[in-house]
Every structure is written in structure tokens, then in C-alpha cells.
What we know:
Blueprint: H1 5-40, H2 44-65, H3 73-102, H4 106-134, H5 142-197, H6 203-225, H7 227-239, E1 243-248, E2 253-259, E3 262-268, E4 271-275, H8 279-287, E5 297-302, H9 307-313, E6 320-325, H10 328-336, H11 338-343, E7 353-357, H12 360-369, E8 374-380, H13 395-404, E9 405-416, H14 422-434, E10 437-444, E11 468-475, E12 488-490
Helix pairs in contact: 1-2, 1-3, 1-4, 1-5, 2-4, 3-4, 3-5, 3-6, 3-7, 4-5, 5-6, 8-9, 12-13
Amino acid sequence: MAPPPGRQRAGRFLVLATVFICAACGLVYELELVALASYLIGDSVKQASVVLSVMVFAMGVGSLLAKRLRCRAAVGFGLLEAALALVGGCSALVLYATFAWIGESRYALVGFSLAIGVLIGAEMPLLMTLIQRISRRAEQDAGGTVADLFAADYVGALVGGLAFPFLLLPWLGQLTSALLTGAVNAVAGGALVLLLFGRDLTVRERWLLVVGNVAVLAVLATATVLADDFERSVRRAVYGERVRVAVQTDVQEVVLTDGPGGPVELFLDGRLRVSGRDEHRYHRALVHPAMRGPHARVLVLGGGDGLALREVLRSGGVESVTVVELDPGVVDLARRDPALTRLNGHAYGDPRVRVVHGDAFARLREAVASGAEYDVVVCDLPDPAITASTKLYSAEFYGLVSRALGDGGRLAVHAGPMVSRPRTFWTVDATLRSAGFTTRPYRATGRLSGFGAGPDRSTGGGSMPADWGFFLAAPDHGPPDPEEVDGVSRAVWPRPAGLPPSTLVHPRYGE
């Protein structure tokens, strides 16, 4: 006997609302894995491809496996959502733990992608079975039911996809976001089954469903309460005991370590960007060769820590310096933190300095459009092998730099280590030359800490590059030879032939 029309409508609404919530939670799990893979492993394009392709494959497997549960669709769906809530909610915790205490999270990432994909893939066949049990009116055909389910699924995915970067991540962080999503997932799945199909379940099935969901919610609630302690333990395992500042800005995680017996160290998204041990060698080598010649107007791209700015201001004759930095949080830390301000010589307090926040590519394009010209452009940017940085090492980007340089202007570029990653280094050279620059390669030695393309562990794990590689470049004329500055030496290796330039359409770094 078909249920009354009123109950049919209410039941259909609850099923579609559950589809909406489960789809939103599922996409949050996917985006969480992609974000963690990019942060913990590096190379966001490859990691996103691995996570999404594995999950889509696993969803197909889950759909096939769900056929065995259709005869017990109600209890099967309830337990399935409890399992998905537990696995998806705890995924961030486990991935952080494997990275911090094992040093490798790739296998855990693939395992979670498979498990979550299988569980998500099994949802839709079971939901289809459940909604067919409710909608038995003749006018509701199978095609209309499928359309309603997929519409709710797609809209839920849209909401989850927007909520993760704009609400969950900035407000709650990665750990709490995953745990809260898991709790919502468990409540939605359990409530649907108990409210609509509780009478169809045996006493054992009802107790199994209630106890399972309560246990999952208890685990997630406990993990949420302990999340701050866990996060501090992870930071100590990764960065050591000297963590003094740890903040999540709108752009990245910023960690500052210092204290007795150790130098000031600044980590951005897990990558060591500044070490008080040897940063002076890097920044002097980057800036000083480019300052030989006219340098009244200087543009610094990146370098929000103020250390390249410090070296620029040490040269006499500087009239104005514009710093373009993506993350205002880094600049604020460099202005206010006592250790960093001592290291950068209170550079941001100089009245000649103007700070512009935003993407270096977009801001440089605006400067060119406004007719601004500079004598020196200093690119103190993340390593070119990091996917997010590749556009700032492209032929199009260097074309904009060429238009921003005045007569006799020079460009200084950090191009990654010359010895350990020669292909990346010389690809920067090929790209500069394709944009009309004449280049002078050089490197700085005496390196004591690493600027890796992937996450660096402060305990010293992993190989450490032995040098920094740079290019001094000028459009249509030869730049001066780099001077001998604190270990700087000209490159003596021959320039490899046949390397193609990197462009926005075809980035070459990391190949």
C-alpha cells in the first residue's frame, strides 16, 4: 500500500535534503584532500589529479558494490554514512599525523581517496532505492526521480564547494572543518533512516544504527576537543620546540620559530622561506648585483618578510621602493614581530617604502598600464618548481617586467638551486631570453638551510640544496657582471641548448 500523498511529499523532501547535505559533505572531503595534498606533498596540479582521479574510480567501484546492499538499503545507507563521516572527518588528522611523525603522507592520501570515493559512490544507488520506496504514485516516473536526485546532488556539491574555501577553511581551519563535516554527515544519514524507515528495521538494526552513529559522533566530538592540542603536537614534531607564531592567513599558514640556541626561521605553508643562519647571503646575492647602475625607483615582487627590502634600502640613492606582496599577514608580521623587525632592520618603517597587496602578475600589469617605470625589479618569489609560482616565471610575466623597466633597467630573479635542479634553473634562463632579456647566471654558496620546492622539516629531513641560483637580466642590452658579494660567483657551467621557455599555456617547470 502506497503511503499517503502528504507523507510521500515529506519523505521525498527529506530524502532530497539528505542528498543535498551528503553531496556537500562529499565535496568538502574531496577539497580537503586536495588542499592537504598540495600543502603536505607539494605540486598542486599532480596531487589534485591523483586525488580526483582515484576518487572518481573508487566511486564507480562503490556504485557496483552498493548493489549487494539494495535489499537492505535503509540500514545499509545509515551505516554507510556513519562510516563515511568517520573516515572523511578523521582524514585530515591522520594525514597530518603521517606527515609529522612518519614524514610521508602519499600512501595515506591514496588510501583515503579510495575509501572516501567508494563510500560516496555507494550513496546514490541506495538513495535511489529509498526514494522509490516512498514515491509510488503513478505520475512519478523513474526519470523524474533520477532528475530530482541528481539536481539535489549537484546543488549540494556547489554549496559544499563554495563553503570550504570561503567559510570552513578560513573560520575553522582544516582539522575542525573535516570533523564538523563528518558530524553533519553522520546526523543527516542517521536521521533520514530512523525517521522515515525506522519501522522497517529490526530491533537489532535500529540498535546497530543508533550505537554506530553515537560512537562516530563521540569520536568526532573528542577529536574536535583535542584538535588544538593535536595541532600543537604536530607543529612541534615538524618545526621543533621553538614555534612562537603560528597563524593561518587568508593565503597560507605562517609559522615563525626562534628562541635560545636557534635562528629565526619563517615557514610559509610548511616550506622554509627564511633562516637567520644564512638569509643574508641569499638576499645580498639577490639584490646587490642589480643595484649597480641607476636605482632610484625599485620594485620588489614578493619578499613580504622585508629582507630583500632591507638590502635595497642599504644602497644610497634609492628614492622609492614598491613592494608587491600577496599575503598581508606576512607583511604585518614583518612590521610587528620583534625578531623579524630586527632581522629586516625595520625596513617597513622607511617613508620611501610603499606596500601593495595582491597577485604580482596582476599588480605588474596594472603598473605597466599606468605607465610606471622602474630602474630595478627584484623577484623575491617562491621557487619556480612550486606550481602556484610558475606563472610568475613565465615568458608573459617577464614580458610585463621588460615593459616596466626604464632605460638601463635591470631585473634580478631567484631561480632555485643551480646544482641540484639544473633543468629548472636553466628553464628560467630560456624563458627570460624568450622575453628579450640578456642574462647573467650566477649563484651564492655557503648555504646552511634549504628553500625546498616541497615541505621542509625543521629537523633536517630530506636533501638540502647546496646553493642559490640567480639571474641578472636586462632587456636589449647586457647587464653588468654580478659582483663578488659574500660568496657570489658567476656560473661556469655551459648553458644547455634546446630548452623551451615556460609560458602560461605550457608551464615547463618540474618536467
